[in-house]
Amino acid sequence: MKMVIFYEKPGCATNTRQKALLRSAGCMILERNLLDHGMNRDELYSYLHDLSVSQWFNPNAPAITQGLIDPHAFSTSQALDALMREPILIRRPLMLIAGQKMCGFDQLKIEALLGQRLDARIDESCSSTSDHCA
Q: What are phi and psi of 107, to 5 degrees?
């Protein structure tokens, strides 16, 4: 059984579906609240560094959907400052699977790490039609 550390926003319907897929694949999920993660900058960066800076941001975060923040306008350092200050901006989930850290639910990468296919395809975008889940 693979252990997955899963940083989520509690109550997010998309994260709930993602965890269900992982559980159906036999994974044991250790849930963590992304909004009070307690990570330092270096630890947070270790989940993000494989992506472009703009991909670190949750495109459904209210500040982004309202046009208050442009994820493309940040340097690495500025982005880390913003994400540490406002964790709701972090693209989720953050996961640790088989020693590999990742940001976002990349199903193909997850399947490669698990060595098996997941039961269904899941849309990574937030399913909420309101800002409640952002």
A: -60, -40
Condensed to tens digits (0 to 9), the pLDDT of residues 64-102 reads 999 999 999 999 999 999 999 999 999 999 999 999 999
E strand or H helix at 91: none
Between CA 117 and CA 21 the distance in angstroms is: 10
Angle (nearest 5°) at CA 38 between 86 and 49? 70
Q: Can you name the CATH fold of 3-133?
A: Glutaredoxin (3.40.30)
**Residue in 12, 27, 103, 126 annotated catalytic:** 12
Per-residue pLDDT tens for 8-65? 999 999 999 999 999 999 999 999 999 998 899 999 999 999 999 999 999 999 999 9
Tell me, yes or no, if 12 is annotated catalytic: yes
Does residue 114 contact residue 21 with C-beta atoms inside 8 Å?
no
User: 102 near 109, Cβ under 8 Å?
Assistant: yes
